[in-house]
Amino acid sequence: MHSFAESVFIGFDDLPSGTLLTSQYPGVIFSSSQGCANYVYSFSTGNIICTGPIGGSIDCVRDTYIDFTSPVNNLTFFAIEPNVAGVDAQFRIFQNNTYTTTIDLIGLGGAGNEFVDLSAYAHITRLEIVNILQSPLENGIGWDSFSFTPVPTLSISSLQTPSTTGNLHSFIATDTITLQAKVNPPNQGMAVKWTVMGIGPAGGISGFPRDQIQNTDGGGVSTFTFSPSDNPAFVTNRRTTWATASTAANDPIGFEVIAELDSNGQSNKSSLSATNLGSLLQDQTDTLREEYYDFNVPVPSRNVIVPSLGATYNESPYSVQASVDLPGHYSAILSAYRSSTLIIGTQSIPIPSTANVVISSAFRNPRRNLAIGSVHPNSKHTVGQALDLQPVPTFAVIDGVRTMLDLHDDFYPALATAAATQGTAIAEQGAVPVSIGDIHENHIHVQWLAGTPQANSIVAAAIQNAIQSHAAALILGGDFSYTVFNDEPANSSFQLNAFHLVVNAPFSVTSSPAGWSFVTDNFSYVDWFCSSGVAPYMGDIAPGTSMQGFSIHSQVSTSASLSFVMSSWNPGTASSGPGYMDTIASPSITTVVPQLTNIGLSSGRDFQFSVSGIPGYSYTIQYSSDLINWAPILTTVAPFNFIDPNSAVGPSTFYRAVFVPQPSTAPDD
Ligand SMILES: [Zn+2]
């Protein structure tokens, strides 16, 4: 067994007489009262120390203070010539940095040296020798032959994770976390026990390292590493409890780490939280990245995670998001789209340079992605490499009549072509690919290869709010009513004539203002437009005025900030004007994951429960006897009650309800 309790002896014979003594000996600091010091002094028995004023003569009557950098045991030394009977000096003792007691030095009553034994006092950190008797008979006292045994102390001295921001040392489950603890005085081969305890979502989970021994190296340092994913219980917890649908942000995972030294039967602990090294706690970036580990899909690197780009680009509940330059790709697609030309009959009609494209979905974190029914946990939307885009239809003047061009025949093909300049573009109806131009399409999904993450700077030119406008929403349950305002100055040329609203829930249009028509798919968008075809374009919204009566009803009463676009018309030139794009409260499903309630027995016999989900959408009841193999019993529209008349027969049966993606309704993928 390695002995760390090596005693230290200081006899001063290795220093020249006259040396001013301070910290020449490791672990000990000698000092005196203000303006005074201890000096090495040549005496008949060899070198001793005596005090005196700095720059004056040694008189051996000043205070001596001795500070130990780590606590000591077995402290002994000699008093040189304490000659007077009675109290010649006093020893003030500090243990573990706290004053505890004062001991009197009783003089010899004659010449000689006296052994001072303070070994009864453990963990001495400071000794003050004071009140040396001022007597001609005394002629001062010297000190010599200090002997003591340093007590090793332990403190966690280093914490390293792949990322540190401010006071947070952040990580994800698979990262290696390294801590070091230092023993003072340094000593090799000392056993340091390390224990890890989970905090937050990791709290109460067993299986993290406990009393794991890492011996100190030659510098007295014990190094300990652990990785949260080395704990199977933790992994199981993540992969079951956390790989589920949710619209809320996860709490960060944290750890407390304790290093412990067992010396002479006395425990000597250091807690990470008691140091000034900061917290071992996930930041928002790693809290989000942890979701990918939970879902067992590749984890995006930290440089893909950027501060939230706003509601349009970020459907997650985090203040950060993944983005491989979503704004840059959007801007490029919009530019290409605005350079497109439509062929209408025999006429070539350029898409207005002010035409807009709205983003109906961009980044979704894995839990949100699942909550809206995506069957692809590794969807490009979860890594910021995909956009869902809707064209905003505009008018053209054909044969002198203002005409709303066709969404599917005209605008979708132009948008698909523009989107294809940035990656792979397909038309989709919800999650289902359809032909470009198909009347069921409700967005163009475009995704691209990762490449190098870009700056994500939102290009000002891309969203041309060149017209002053705004909208207000009035929400009563599932009824959403909108008023739109033309905030242009009175002398402006621009009248509002179209209103595109993004929706993410089943709905129907319940009213439109007089003179306005609409097109919609009753799930993802509604395009209202003024149907007047000739000047003075009755029903357009003039500068300084507003119009209400844009109303929809949804089976869901939950909402989210979704995009809308106002388009304008210049009656003087009979051409499209600039648009205005922003977000506003719009019906939005929060989850397609069904809830099972009212579980019990019907008529005291048949097993039953209620299924809620998105009202009006289909769910399949499945059953299983082993929780592995599932078979369908019934598919019907939520909400509904389910009664299994055969449940009283046979062994135990398990049930679950599963969302059925529907081409006309499913959220996109
Ligand atoms: Zn998509």
Arithmetic mean of pLDDT: 89
Tell me the number of helical segments per DSSP (H or I, 4 or more residues long).
Answer: 5
Largest sheet: 8 strands, antiparallel
Distance between the termini: 64 Å
Give the total of beta strands.
Answer: 47
Structural class: mainly beta
**Unreliable stretches covering 5 or more consecutive residues:** 458-462, 663-668
Q: What is the CATH class of the largest domain?
A: Mainly Beta
Name the assembly state: single chain
Strand content: over 45%
- Corresponding CATH architecture of the largest domain: Sandwich
Instruction: Sum up the overall morphology in one term.
Output: elongated
Share of residues in helices: under 10%
At the fold tier of CATH, the topology name of the largest domain is Jelly Rolls
Radius of gyration: 40 Å
Domain count: 5
How would you portray this structure in words?
The strands form twelve sheets. Strands 1, 3, 6, 7, 8, 9, 10 and 11 form an eight-stranded antiparallel sheet that branches. Strands 13, 14, 16, 17, 19, 20 and 21 form a seven-stranded mixed sheet that branches. It contains five helices and 47 strands. α3 packs across α5 (407-419). It folds into five domains: 8-150, Jelly Rolls; 153-294, Immunoglobulins (Immunoglobulin-like, Sandwich); 302-444, Muramoyl-pentapeptide Carboxypeptidase, domain 2, CATH 3.30.1380; 465-591, Immunoglobulin-like, CATH 2.60.40.1170; 595-659. It is elongated, with a radius of gyration of 40 Å. The longest helix is centred in the middle third of the chain and has 13 residues, at 326-338. By secondary structure, the protein is mainly beta.
